[in-house]
Amino acid sequence: MKIIRTVLGDIPNREMGITDAHDHIIRSGGPEVWRDSSFLMDDTDAAKREFRKFLEAGGKTMICMDPIGCGRNVVKMLEAAEEFRDMGNIVMTTGFQKGSNYCPNTSFLATVDADRIAEMMILEITEGMDLHSYNGPVVERTKAKAGVIKAGTSYRVITRLEQKALKVAAITQKETGCAISMHTDFGTMAVEILDILKEYGAGLEKVVLCHMQRNPDRYYYERILDAGATICFDEPNKPQYRPDIEIAENIKWLIERGYQKQIVLGMDGGRREALGAYMGETGLANGLEYLLTRFVPLLRKIGISDEAIDCVLVKNPSEVFAINV
Ligand SMILES: [Zn+2]
User: Fold this and answer.
1) 10 forms bridges with which residues in the sheet?
2) DSSP string, 61-82
3) CA–CA dist 183, 266 (Å, integer)
């Protein structure tokens, strides 16, 4: 049986529905926030309002990609998920962001053996996530289990620390059957990521490469997809990187070449101004519903079929994020 591991429990994968495959609604701190306060998203009520807009636009499931050491907040996410118990699903993440978020000398990622770290990640998936996100010596498991493994790499470089996180991710995937979702920096190093994961025994059919729209090289996409991985196009409404139409045209091109089953979509809101509900009185901004209210209609307008859109929004996430139990 195939299930999706949400924070409120397992659901049959066919109940996953329209899925945002990479997003953030609560981030309570961490190195990204220290560097740039617009990364702080620590308001449970705002997160609920944001998630509600996504549901009202037709969404059902959101994969929330905040890993260990980057402001993950299990209690607040659980509170948000509970409010929408019969309406929508939230999936949370174990694992790591890219290496610049961890001390290369003294973080537990640096000092503890990869096999032991993998054991810790496996427990987050099979028993429950640590209330403190392994930030300290006290571990208190919550009832909420992680449903996705994260790892990350740097721009044009995979540091030693990141190679170790990839090894941890591969071991954790082998033990749990859980998908690995990768932060790529500007879409670089995807080929090398897949090589390393494969070397450590990961199944590439359960690997999602995020942020690939920032490196809009169609032949590079083909190479990655031919290796069996899934690409997540996850930043509509961020024209400082790529305009929506360019992302949409690349998705169309890939669908026409038969890669329809290896594409998923997300928003990767990431910062307060990407989540309209967080702006409050400060100003007007689009939120995560933009994926469904603005980007999907654009896909239709350029001639992508409803069947293909259903595939990337519903069918593909329900396969790649499924765990066999
Ligand atoms: Zn993200």
Assistant:
1) 5
2) EEEE---TTTT--HHHHHHHHH
3) 13
Query: For residue 257, what is the enclosing H or E element?
Result: none
29: left (phi over 0), alpha (psi -120 to 50) or beta: left
Could you tell me the distance, in angstroms and rounded to a whole number, from the CA of residue 150 to the centre of ligand 1? 10
Identify whether the C-beta of residue 124 lies closer than 8 Å to the C-beta of residue 67: no
Q: Which two tokens stand for residue 148?
A: 């996705």
Q: Which helix (H) or strand (E) holds 160?
A: helix 160-176
Distance 268 CA to ligand 1 centre (A): 5
CA 63 to chain centre: 5
Dihedral over Cα of 151, 152, 157, 159: its sign: negative
Section 26-35 average pLDDT: 95
Which residue range forms the structural domain that includes residue 95? 2-324
Å from CA of 186 to ligand 1 middle: 12
Question: Above 90 in pLDDT, residue 280?
Answer: no
Task: List the structure tokens of 162.
Answer: 């990141």
Which pair of tokens denotes residue 245? 């139409």
Q: Give the model confidence (pLDDT) of 39-50 as tens digits.
A: 999 999 999 999
Query: In CATH, what number is assigned to the domain containing residue 319?
Result: 3.20.20.140
Amino acid, single-letter form, for residue 121: M
| Domains identified in the chain, total number | 1
Interval between CA 65 and ligand 1 midpoint (Å): 6
- Whether pTM > 0.90 for this model: the answer is yes
Tell me which residue of 253, 255, 290, 316 sits closest to 4, measured CA to CA. Answer: 316
